[in-house]
Specification:
Elements: E1 5-6, H1 13-18, E2 26-29, E3 33-37, E4 45-51, E5 54-55, H2 66-82, E6 93-96, E7 112-116
Antiparallel strand pairs: 1-5, 2-3, 3-4, 4-7, 6-7
Bound molecules: guanosine-5'-monophosphate (5GP) and zinc ion (ZN).
The site of guanosine-5'-monophosphate (5GP) has 13 residues, from strand 3.
């Protein structure tokens, strides 16, 4: 853990969502991860998958996070299927993570956007 990793940051929007201080439509929860529907969906399926551990972004990752990030990645297709993304290859999904201001990141708690469903989409 570095000083940029904290179990919970009281001022972080997504930490508040994990703590149920801000309501969300929950997609999945386990000890390590939380997933919830994006409030402004781009696609018929659009949810955010986050580690419960507060990590600001991909830029803070190091070798100690490798196993956790692997487990997070493996969750993506399971949750995409659960949320109604159609099967590969005709269906599929888009996985997106924004890092830093120039990467388009608005909420500074590491998150994967998972988007799918029939096109056209509002964006992306
Ligand atoms: P970023 O731009 O940081 O990659 O994505 C942040 C995402 O969080 C945006 O897609 C935005 O719609 C979503 N978001 C922001 N505030 C809330 C909220 O209070 N609840 C939920 N469910 N999503 C949010
Ligand atoms: Zn946080």
């Amino acid at each position: 853990m570095s000083n940029l990793d904290h179990l919970h940051q009281p001022d972080c929007l997504f930490c508040k969502i994990v703590a149920r201080k801000i309501p969300s439509r929950v997609v999945y929860e386990d000890e390590e991860f939380f997933a919830f529907h994006d409030i402004h969906p781009w696609a018929p399926v659009h949810f955010l998958l986050i580690p419960k551990l507060h990590i600001h972004s991909m830029a803070q990752l190091d070798d100690r996070h490798a196993n956790m990030m692997g487990r997070m990645m493996v969750l993506v297709p399971k949750l995409a299927k659960q949320e109604g993304c159609n099967p590969y290859p005709e269906g599929g999904f888009r996985l997106l993570t924004n890092t830093g201001a120039e990467g388009g990141q608005e909420v500074h708690h590491l998150h994967f956007h998972v988007m799918g469903g029939p096109r056209p989409w509002a964006r992306g």
